Amino acid sequence: MEPRVKIQDAQPAGWKAMFALEGYLATTEVSKTHKELIKIRTSQINSCAFCIDMHTADAIKHGETAKRIFLLNAWKETDVFTEEEKVVLAIAEEITLIHLNGLSETTYQKAKAIFSENYIAQLIMVAVTINAWNRIAISTHLPVSR
Fold first, then answer.
1. How far is CA 36 from CA 9, 22, 88, 115, 140, in A?
2. Are 122 and 34 contacting, i.e. CB atoms less than 8 angstroms apart?
3. Per-residue confidence at 2, pLDDT binned at 50, 70, 90?
4. How many C-beta atoms surround the C-beta of residue 85 within 10 A?
């Protein structure tokens, strides 16, 4: 793929705003595991090679196992993820696939039984932010590192 516009050069204020969202996410209570599961799974759904590459590497650095990463596409069909992680992944998927009705009441109620409203809001912000990054990376043909 041919490279396209570099948002960071063409629209530095917009790029800076995206990084400000990342800075905010770094201050949240959301665990590194939850963040990376959301970022990887969302990037898989959106077919964002750049972000899948980046976030699988980050997850491994933070102690995630290859087995769990390999099984992430089939998280509903395995017991390697905790019930808490399954709710986090459901939130990520439903927000990413918003055209299929968005975050369902069932998933939201499961989240409320496990997490505080503050944590749920932060999970939503992680999902929204990675979806935005996916769209930037795909639209501009950000290359996967070699």
1. 27, 13, 11, 18, 22
2. no
3. confident
4. 17
The token duo for 30 is 């959301």
> Per-domain residue ranges for the chain?
10-139
Q: Which helix (H) or strand (E) holds 28?
A: none
Q: Return the pLDDT at 8.
A: 92
Q: What is the C-alpha separation between 142 and 7, in angstroms, rounded?
A: 10
Superfamily classification of domain 10-139? AhpD-like (1.20.1290.10)
Alpha carbons 12 and 14: distance in angstroms, whole number: 5
Proportion of the chain above pLDDT 90, given as a percent = 95
Determine the average pLDDT of the residues in 94-117: 97
C-alpha dihedral (146, 24, 59, 101), degrees to nearest 10: -100
Which of 90, 100, 79 has its CA nearest to residue 120?
90
Supply the pTM of this predicted model. 0.95
